[in-house]
């Protein structure tokens, strides 16, 4: 049967009653559900289910049912992942020339890296060539051809872990833009103490390592009682990096399409002879003035502050000043991730 | 961020955690929610929102958020709507030659009509030309080109109510394949006593009128207390037809993609001089043998019983034998639909 | 924060935006979602999660997340399960005196059995004493104290399979009111050829066996290609009973709170010397007149037809006349359930 | 039917398939859905629907379908609302003695106020006495009897707007803990320029006004094009306060049970003769050292820092340093709320 008549005045009320929806678990027992306007692409690669959809948050890449990044706030995720480490490196007196990206198939991480005037080489290793193709085609705003045709950029379709174990190259900044360590997932090795130890050997002096670190929502009750049932990996990654690096600085940014605050952790070595590593961390987190960061942005970024939507001196403080609730949550977490004792996120 | 690693062994578990979904209200407080694989088409016509999707039930036409018919069981809906009335007409001694279809944009109602060897003319009036185009393109199995290129078939894109009021033509069978009478909807006039009175004048002797009639789930508690809160239109259509026709026979078929049992009502005049109209109804509902129907199918349908997926002699009994619960529900409903006192379905 | 002000005129619109919900899978990829008004009871027994809730369908017993029966249509389920077999037994010349119920914890199956004037003994074996207590307390309308205090009724809290294997007793009617055979479930043995063979030895001459049989929605596409992926158990139970009994008669009833049509199958031996078992089945399914059933109801049921909400002569035809689509589905299913080769429902 | 057998080993898988759920709109087209364990209380007051449930976030008060506060993070909401203003007042040289709370029915806002050693009087005006009773009974941890029996606390059940218009009293801090300005809601007057002008007259010298301000998720695309379609009220409240107060300072905190970052805005007058109001704001937002705040906490709060779960010097920076994305969003919003031109939130 079909409708027969004039334009339905109650069409919006009707639309409200139905829905095409995208629903995603953000924690066991908590889901984000949003209107789904279009399914632009759906297929399986050798490695995962790949969907490109248009939702409440605009165009969105979804792999294996997890939002990877969305049009409305991908800038916030990718700027948060890239710029603090790049500028930290610059602040150390070494404007970064070489960057390794593990994962990063959307190309937006590379896009942000390539904004830095000092960059000479950016190599990205992602195992799923199909994701890259799909992003170039459907999510060109994320970087696309502009990134892949940049002469400073080298794309390797392959296993990031294997590539890192085999390379002799070293980098100023290493950026891990990979999926969370889930039980079923293959990326688990890239979150272990063993990998971080190796990554440190692939960093130049004054080099900086950074990884996305899953949800940073301060939900303390989830942590009461049992690490087993804790489903975030923010604490474990923080602890594991601390077994390897002198300075480890967790930070976070609100990414609405991820369902709340998202965690990142950067790690680097203290200057030779430094005795107060905590002070080094603190001076980075809370510089004497927000101008320190604003000036670095102006120096390093092609086009200056106008090119960035999220990051500047004040945002830096917002990102690095974790709330007491989140700090307590990290403090109370003692889990360390090793090859033999991985910690799985939900 | 994107996945980096080997084929995810837990991909199905992950898929289970997420979902692209289609959710539809079937009653106030009751919804059907199903996996949504693809959105094949989405647009608005002059009259309504039109979506073609692929769900649990296969390809599905959705207008203004309501499932119109789906690949898995459209045959059940369209055979139920068409064949009983056509065969009733044949049984009366007049194998039907002319049929009017109000609505029917998917073309599947016409497809079933055209299976009848006796058909010489089938005119279909649907207001939304875009629905027809979309169905021809995306739902060719419903009928498509095969129907529209049939010389016996005439398509009128226009207002079915207006067309019927203006035509001088009369028909052996009139089939109303239109949306439920919802408050916002324009089809409300096609469910009134006034329209039925006029339709009777457009029927040939021995002619049969049939209309889809909304949900026929026997949910008696919804009916306790107040007609106001009753959201089905099965009872009101039944009552309204009874104010006009001698014989009114409600029947139902299970249509899973509609969320349960679906109602249809056929109506016709008793033979001249007939004094026991209830007996006429009963003899039609429960023929002496299922062979009566099976033989009619064999005579009337090009290709015979093999061409039908739902309807035969035994199915006829299943359809016309309403449960006591449903009969009670109809019996207790006293609402009649007139131009001035329409009854709105949910 | 809390509201501060006058009665909110848009409260219903607001309510519509939120929801307490009960969502249940009815098939892989299809869910029923309904408003949840109250959670009356929630706990775990030794065997399963037990919830009593109030939803769109009224008060409802839910075990392990599956609706067992609901206030609005439990009468339809329990009358369908009980009366056809009881009356078949009566029609054979033996008004049933003794009945065994496997499962049946809600007590409503026993309630329907005890309506039959001829009943002298009804023994019910359900493993979960807590379900029975909960039903007595929260679902008294289902039977409750009235059933358990009836002198003809004996309650055994124990394993129905074990009890049947050990008893020397025989019965006029055996009614299996147990959960569907799901992979995780323990009831699987009660759906095997081996159990049916034993059950036959526990039936008196002219005895009738009946079991609930899961969904009977005619969804043929689910069956295309692979029995493996078929998630209904209606066909397998039908086939399995046919390896044991002379006459096997599947029937179905629309149970909205179960999400559509529900299957039942009754089985019995043909009269000694009978050569046309199909005819015996047919004569039962489609009696010469609906009066046959109506008269049996009047004779057998204390209080007569007024006491029943679903079952009578016309409903009998509705239930036993399966649509062609459903008959084809059963015909194409060849699976048989044995101890070594069980078939799991979703 | 009921289960019959041994403890179901797949019970958790089964539980995963079903769900009791609480679903709440957080924006038009975006919903938070969470497991619902219990409905502890459900009723309607004279003013609104009141539910107390137990969800993923623990015990939660829900009114008219909107989460008011939940066990897991109510401390973050109430500390954010109360302490910055109280300490600002103390920093101005006037440890606050008198506080007015508009709304606040959960009593947790008063709980935080009463932690301040300098408090002599806290008057709270909430229109819905039933909410207060329900919170005392079911959410005693929020404050309950401890608050209502505190001699410094006065409870007025009545209209906060009316009370403020009629009182002659003035306060050191005015805290507005009321629902968002939704179209249907009565609290709309409490968000207008006219109310803020009056509130300023009810503040003592050095007094501070603060109001919760709805979602502070930086979702810029919602703001592209049209203020009309913008559904947040953070910008409008900010703009409106600026038409009245010298200094207006928006801040935000991550409140997972509200679905992301939540906005608050405090407002106060600059010191007499001050020419650079922006500098006054900046010095408050980013004090020379986090010790400034930590010392104030230690001085003012009974029991010191140990009593607070969220607020301290570093959290202060996290809260007052808004990201560039959120600052841009506020900057681009020009809406002002007046009695004649209110702005409605979703």
Please tell me about this protein's structure.
The structure is a homotetramer of 346-residue chains. With 346 residues, chain A is of the alpha/beta class. Chain A has two domains: 18-68, Spermidine Synthase, Chain: A, domain 2, CATH 2.30.140; 74-331, Rossmann fold (3-Layer(aba) Sandwich). Helix content of chain A is 31%, strand content 28%. Chain A has helices at 11-17, 74-91, 108-114, 129-138, 144-148, 160-166, 193-201, 234-242, 277-285, 290-300, 313-320, 324-331; strands at 19-27, 30-44, 49-55, 58-63, 66-70, 98-103, 121-126, 153-157, 171-177, 203-215, 247-255, 260-268. In chain A, helix 10 (290-300) crosses helix 11. The interface between A and B is large, with 67 and 67 residues.
Largest sheet of chain A: 7 strands, mixed
Oligomer: homotetramer
The largest beta-sheet of chain A arranges its strands as 8-7-6-9-10-12-11
Radius of gyration of chain A: 21 Å
CATH topology of the largest domain in chain A: Rossmann fold
Number of domains of chain A: 2
Number of strands of chain A: 12
**CATH homologous superfamily descriptor of the largest domain in chain A:** Vaccinia Virus protein VP39
Structural class of chain A: alpha/beta
CATH class of the largest domain in chain A: Alpha Beta
H/E topology pattern of chain A: HEEEEEHEHEHHEHEHEHEEHHHH
Number of helices of chain A: 12
